Amino acid sequence: MMFLVLAVLVTVTTVATVALAGSRSHRKNDPDATFWYVFTGMCVVAPMILIPAMSNRVLSCALLLLAAGTAVATQLWCRRHADLLAATGHQAELAAAFTQISHRHQALITQWSRYELDPGAAIDFPTMSDVRVPETSALIRAVTAANQLQPVTDARIVPDTVHSAFSLMTDDGVATYQRAVAELEVALETAEAAARRYQRG
Questions:
Q1: CA-CA distance, 49 to 64, in Å (whole number)?
Q2: DSSP secondary structure code for residue 158 in this structure
Q3: Whole-prediction pTM value?
């Protein structure tokens, strides 16, 4: 019975010590906190292990092994949990970046669509619909390239669209998409400038 009580106390104290030493020191940005948490934890655990040694060395050794194993297991769990949190935070950053780029992409598509959907704009700037014009042809290629890089986020196609689309985002994927949208913006500006020159004759 005594061993069971001591084992529970040693386990709980060891877990608390390792967890606090690993998490609180990083949150406070104070490396010395690790030492003090470990020191305090050892001051609590040591008597639980050493005092039984006066009457039963086997019990003391078993408690020591239990404390060591618990410390290692807790450290591994804390490291895995920290890695998971970091990955989740990075995924959220990628999602935010993707959202910003996607909004700019849609704004450019809306700006370009005006020349197709607005009869007045189509009459005033006919070259914006003429793929024989080099600038317009380059614009169409840029539109196609950007659209191909945008993940599907239609709720009718993919359930839980935000998670489904963003979970596929990577650093390279977001960077490539950003370059494609930037190239689309440049191509649209160039095509519009050419259309205005043609309008002025």
A1: 6
A2: S
A3: 0.59
Angle between helices 57-117 and 32-50 (to 10 degrees): 150
Cα(138)–Cα(128) distance, integer angstroms: 11
Q: Tell me the Cα Rg of the chain.
A: 31
pLDDT digits (tens, 9 = 90+) for 25-66: 555 566 666 777 777 877 888 888 777 777 777 877 888 888
Q: Which helix (H) or strand (E) holds 187?
A: helix 171-200
Closest alpha carbon to 60 in 46, 74, 78, 71: 46
Question: Please, what sign has the CA dihedral across residues 152, 154, 156, 161?
Answer: positive
| Distant-in-sequence contacts of 115-123, Cβ < 8 A, 24+ apart | 115/195
pLDDT digits (tens, 9 = 90+) for 1-18: 666 777 888 888 888 888
Tokens of 91: 């995924």
Residue 190 burial (10 A CB sphere; 0-12, 13-18, 19+):
middle
